[in-house]
Sequence to fold (96 residues):
Amino acid sequence: MTKADIVSKISEKLGIEKGDVQATVESFMEEVKNSLENGDNVYLRGFGSFIIKTRAEKTGRNISKNTTIKIPAHNIPAFKPAKVFVEGVKSNVQVK
Fold:
């Protein structure tokens, strides 16, 4: 499912114009992004949490030059689904 599909479904369900729904969806995504960039986690009860995870420093390998490199510690965004969300997917989606 793409952002356009989400906008279409919400527009059909609520009877709101697609342009307004698209602006709302993009504004939501921008706010989540801005919160994470400012170091704040985003918690959506019943859906999940957008959190910041810290990756420790580690040693990597450049296989083309056969050398080791240090990969510094860094933060990455992550999504952790709520228990209700996980249980719904487990019970409703068939294993492929």
Summary: The first strand starts at residue 42 and ends at 44. The helical segments are 3-14, 18-37, 83-92. The two ends are 18 Å apart (CA to CA).
